Amino acid sequence: MVVQRIGRLSAYAFLLVTVLISIFPFYWMFVIGSNTTADANRFPPVIIPGSLYMDNITNVFNNIEFFRALGNTVIVSVAITAAQLFFSSLAAFALSRLHFKGRHVLFVFIVTTLMIPQQLGIIPLYIIMQNLSLVNTLTAVILPGIVGAYGIFWMKQYMDSSVHYELIESARIDGCGNFRTYATIALPIMAPALATLGIIMFMGTWNDFLWPSIVLKDTSVHTIQIALRNLNKVYYRDIAMIMAGTFLATIPLLIVVGVFSRYFISGITAGAVKA
């Protein structure tokens, strides 16, 4: 009993330390964002929030179109996440539970594309967007991200272990077609995997900087990461203002993760414990 109690307390202490370490960067952003740049460069550093956060946020609003950029980011992130969930799960259903010639070769080819660095495709992708007259539009950011090899791989692995052939055969005996079987049988079972993939895709799209910075030049279509980058001036960098804007831009991500964290954990740990 004593050993179990010590083990339980040790586990709780470890979790508490882990939580504090995870929260500290966000707290530090808020501390810097609520003080001055001079305070950010002091030693020893300031560890208590100041009273200038709203002033720094006002400076952010005066320097960039923050809410326009935030709205553009929400549109891009939601569109890419929704498309990824639909097309990745649909492709995974076909590769996992439909029998057709060459499906294993096709899956190996899709997974192989994960080894190709994203940077190698930037130039041809930009040329394609330019030929389609999509440069400086949000479509140029959304279109390349509507489906990806990682999403297909993740959903197929989950489907292989969770969606049994017996369920698929039962649905077919009842007269369900392939798409109806996918929508009514496979999708409800894959809810944890969908939530996990959705969080990963949403966070990745929200924080993406490289491709939007290349294809979006007009400030009216800037995403939040590009807008925050514009706060960094050539001759002077107001660290406090940048941190205040960054903290504000991080809040939507924290809300999304908080709402879907339960599904995220169940999707990650699915199959880890067997009866």
From TrEMBL:
One of its GO terms (biological process) is transmembrane transport. The keyword Transport applies. GO terms for molecular function: ATP binding. It is a multi-pass membrane protein. Pfam families: BPD_transp_1. Its main location: membrane. It is found in: Cell membrane. CDD domains: TM_PBP2 (cd06261). The chain crosses the membrane at residues 12-30, 69-93, 105-128, 134-155, 182-203, 239-265. Residues 70-260 form the ABC transmembrane type-1 domain. InterPro entries: MetI-like (IPR000515), MetI-like_sf (IPR035906). GO terms for cellular component: plasma membrane. The keyword Membrane applies. Keywords: ATP-binding, Cell membrane, Membrane, Nucleotide-binding, Transmembrane, Transmembrane helix, Transport. Belongs to the binding-protein-dependent transport system permease family. This is Sugar ABC transporter ATP-binding protein. It comes from Paenibacillus abyssi. The lineage of its organism: Bacteria, Bacillati, Bacillota, Bacilli, Bacillales.
